[in-house]
Amino acid sequence: MSNDLLQTLEAKVDLLIQLSERLADENSELKRHKSEWVVERARLTEKNELARHRVEAMISRLKKLENNE
Q: CA quadruple 46, 50, 53, 59: dihedral positive or negative?
């Protein structure tokens, strides 16, 4: 193999290593964000359920008041 070809190959391998490291970092960051979003989604779902139950309870009380009049 010629020296130029070897240097070109070495440069390409270095670039692939850098790309691989960058993609691994991005993947870790995306996994961390996903984990945060899963927690946030669970919190919002719970909050939504609580609000739904409160609204249903208010509607029930209003219907009872309406029936008593």
A: negative
Look up residue 1 and give its amino acid. Answer: M
In the predicted model, what is the mean pLDDT of residues 2-26?
96
Q: Residue 55's pLDDT is what?
A: 97
Average pLDDT, the chain: 96
Residues near 1 by beta carbon (within 8 Å), at least 6 away in sequence: 9
Give me the residue label for tokens 């779902």: 45
Residue 23, CB half-sphere, CA atoms under 13 Å: how many? Answer: 6
Q: Compute φ and ψ for 2, nearest 5 degrees.
A: -75, 160
